[in-house]
Amino acid sequence: ISQPLLHNSAQFKGLPFGIAFDIDGVILRGRAPIAGAAQAIQRLYHKDGTMKVPFLFLTNGGGLPESKRALELSELLGVNILPSQVVQGHSMFRNLLGRYQNELIVATGKGDPALVMSEYGFNKVFSIEEYTSYFKDIDPVSQYKNWTTMPKNDQSSTLMKKASACDVYRERVKAAFVVSDPVDWGRDIQVLCDILRTGSPSGQENGGQPALYFAADDLEYQAAFPAKRLGVGAFRIALESIFNRVHHTPLECIIYGKPEPLAFKNAEATLRQLHCHTDFDVQLNNNQSDYFRALYMVGDNPSVDIKGARQAGDPWIPVLTRTGLFQGKGNHKEYPADLVVDTVKDAVDYILEKEF
Ligand code: G3P
Ligand code: MG
């Protein structure tokens, strides 16, 4: 454990503390838990299964509704994770409901991005796969693909009966959402270039670019493969470079997720709710700003997790592990954490020792 630069919390004694865990490279490598991760999370519960420390998962990954992800994590970690403890890159897309609830929108990414958006309440959402299927020959190399990106149990289509072929041909797409890592980059870049130029693959240019939202912007992340893998941010660069060559107006997009300050504000508010609504021993200070004495962000990506927590300021404390993107001996040079540990288990041991 590197020498920590943690604050002296004496003046905040009595206020609660909380923890936000990154998932990829901290809790999981691919679908497998990292050694000690399950035990670390289990230490945050009392013997009777109630939560001892308010905590959540703050990941830039996604592709499944929070309820499903919570079930998956519960099985992998042997505890009962609540859907509200899963904050994904796309979780904040909910806030855009007022703007696009009944507008035609397209969603792409691994998992079931249309189901994610339908569950948030968007009524006219198509997966890019389904949208593409309405335009014959839109993907000129589709006959060479002997696979599909359509989710296996396509629940999203049942939820989307309100949207019809008629809507697809008549209406402009108002916004495109990159919900998680795109699977078929070639098709997605082609179809997004079509949509973002005109609002429809067959349409005339009649107005500005439809909005484009990214759930995150990670250039790379740590999955199961030993070396780093390209993430949503890499896809964004590819799309942007190509769009800007085929179109006269530069691509505009809006990016959510870490390290954006909004992601940390939202995590703080969620942790506060978890603390208020769960049966903790102490219930103090209901004031939003000084509610926590410390909020630890345990992450593996210096330019995303550590930079984000640092930018978010008090009461966030960035903690860096060596099980993911960062594997250096000391601290990261450009985005140093307050504490660097080998694993998430070391992080939790340290935090509990310090705070209790
Ligand atoms: O696609 C997932 C990745 O970009 C990062 O996930 O959990 O490390 O924020 P996480
Ligand atoms: Mg990570």
What is this structure, in a nutshell?
One of its GO terms (cellular component) is mitochondrion. The chain is of the alpha/beta class. The chain contains 12 helices and 15 strands.
- The shape, in one word, is elongated
| Total count of strands | 15
What is the rounded distance between the termini?
19 Å
Radius of gyration: 21 Å
How would you characterize the largest beta sheet?
6 strands, parallel
In DSSP terms, counting alpha (H) and pi (I) runs of 4 or more, how many helices?
12
What spatial order of strands do you see in the largest sheet? 5-4-1-13-14-15
Number of domains: 2
Q: Considering the protein shown, what is the CATH homologous superfamily of the largest domain?
A: HAD superfamily/HAD-like
Helix/strand/pairing category = alpha/beta
Bound molecules: SN-glycerol-3-phosphate, magnesium ion
CATH topology of the largest domain: Rossmann fold
In the CATH hierarchy, what is the class of the largest domain? Alpha Beta
Instruction: Calculate the mean pLDDT score and round it.
Output: 91
**Fraction of helical residues:** 25-40%
